[in-house]
Amino acid sequence: MHISTTLLAGGLLSMQGLVLGAGISGTSGYTLVPVFNTKKLSGSDLLPTVQVINKPLVDEDGVTRAAKGHFVTAVDSTMFSVYPPIQGCGYGLTTTSAEARYRGCSVAMNMGFFDISNTTHPHCLGAVVSDDVLIEHDATGTIHFGLTNDGNWFIGYVDNEFLASHTLASLADRCDSTGSCANDSDLPWYFRSLASGQVQLVNKGKNYVNESSGVNTFTTEVSGRTAIGLLKGGRLGMVQIDGRTGQDGIDLFTLADVMVNLGFTEAINLDGGGSSTTAINGALASLPSDGCPDDKTGYFGCERAVSTIVCLHSSPQELVVGAI
Fold first, then answer.
1. DSSP 131-145
2. Do residues 229 and 237 lie in contact, with contact meaning Cβ atoms separated by under 8 Å?
3. Using CB atoms within 10 A of its CB, is residue 232 exposed (0-12), middle (13-18) or buried (19+)?
4. How many angstroms separate the Cα of 112 from the Cα of each of 25, 60, 239, 275, 312?
5. Is the CB of residue 209 less than 8 Å from the CB of residue 253?
6. Kind of pairing, strands 133-136 and 143-148?
7. Strands 264-269 and 200-203
8. If you ran DSSP here, which 8-state letter would residue 291 be given?
9. Which among 6, 106, 176, 249 would be 20 to 30 A from 235, CA to CA?
10. CA torsion, ordered 243, 276, 271, 241, to nearest 10 deg
11. Within a domain: 160
12. Contact, 262 vs 242, CB < 8 A?
């Protein structure tokens, strides 16, 4: 299957003719992975962890480049959220650190692509589900990562019909006016959180870039990168690498190798380039490649406003049953 239109994305501007993995069409090719069992853990063992990546790597062109960034892991899926911009998809963009402060994230990274050609109403590209509610509807041609209400991580492709049948317009759709919900066993599973990326990096513990997209400029170009996926046992993992597109950073083949070495069993590529960002306790922790508008020295890098973010909280998040 090919995407016939040009994708205008937040970090890497153009991907034409993206080839999806063999046999992946509509709703086929998705995987459900049970979340990590946290029953034997307590206290600080449940909190997200952040490690700094700082290692020279040989890329696909045989050039040794310094890979600098962050490796984040989490075990408790109840601390995981996907959030659209504060203004809402299609109404504005927000920096990762500002969104993290607003949402109370312990650790946050940028996530989904967005249409930078529309400066007035920059749409989130791909489907977005946040706190059980469908925010953005178009799932065409993008790979998704998310969390289902029945305790599974989701990795794969969906079409719009599948998305509509596995999401809610509001929490009120699931509950009656008294706030009491129907027996969950009588309901189909649905997405609690979901957002999209481009290119599956790791599948069943192996580098999957060739099978997912083929070799093109996007996959072989060095740039800042952000990726999300699963480690053994259903642990969540995220990797963010600093870089300036075409100058430094990491290509997708090398990124996939890094993630395999880190123990990822499944992973997808998220928005990169100037969008690639890590925030810790609401403060910028990465080195963004965009210049600052008022910086005449050229010394500083400033965050790019982005669309969706991955948010890891420091405590479980409870949804208000029956809220709209």
1. TTEEEE---TT-EEE
2. yes
3. exposed
4. 21, 25, 14, 10, 16
5. yes
6. unpaired
7. antiparallel
8. B
9. 249
10. 50
11. yes
12. no
pLDDT higher than 50, residue 174: yes
Which residues touch 43 (CB under 8 Å, ≥6 apart)? none
Contact 128, 306 (CB under 8 A): no
74 found inside a domain: yes
**pLDDT (0 to 100) of residue 164:** 85
Residue 114: inside a domain? yes
Tally of structural domains, the chain: 1
Per-residue tokens: 167: 């999401």
Write out the residue range of the structural domain in which residue 84 sits.
31-171+188-312
Of the candidates 85, 259, 71, 7, the residue with the CA atom closest to the CA atom of residue 155: 259
Q: Which of 297, 261, 255, 284 is nearest to 60 (CA)?
A: 255
Residue whose tokens read 């920096």: 95
The whole-number pLDDT of residue 123 equals: 86
In this predicted structure, the answer to whether residue 152 has a pLDDT above a threshold of 50 is: yes
Residue type, 275: S
Identify the bridge partners of residue 240 per DSSP, sorted by sequence position: 70, 226
Q: What are phi and psi of 311, to 5 degrees?
A: -120, 125
In the structure encoding, which two tokens stand for residue 232, read together? 């053994």
CA–CA distance, 310 with 315 (Å, rounded to integer): 15
Q: Mean pLDDT throughout 228-233?
A: 97
Determine, yes or no, domain membership for 181. no
